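Q&A log
Question type: sequence-to-structure
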Amino acid sequence: MTPAAIKIAVTSRFNTLVAITRTPDLPFVFENVAYKPPATLQAYARIYTVFGEKRLTQIGGTLKDYRRVGRLQVQLHSALNIGEALALELADLVELSFQSVSAGGITYRTPTTTTVGADGGWWRVDVSCPFFVNDQA
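Response status: OK
Response body:
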């Protein structure tokens, strides 16, 4: 599975299980895209797919087995001065959607949630979820 295909699968899962399950929908922004949220917005997310090493896991025959590791990084932003309950509720939803599940050829491991605090006029909580993809070439 290529990095581009992995990004599509991860983003699709996030959209289906996190972003559009809320009322109103949770807007999310891709990495390397400028975004200025409207002042009336209660929350938004910025998602990153970070890739690590691609390792050879088995040699033999005509095909070789590889494992590509990576990490889904989600920055959850909620309005300042409303408490951190909304950001933590969103973090719980992200964790539940990605925790210890295999979907679309990707195996997600146990996520970690970290409260960052005030960040540019928003309250930020990050969720980080390691994953791996097994492939043959």
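Response note: Residues 3-17 form the longest helix (15 residues).
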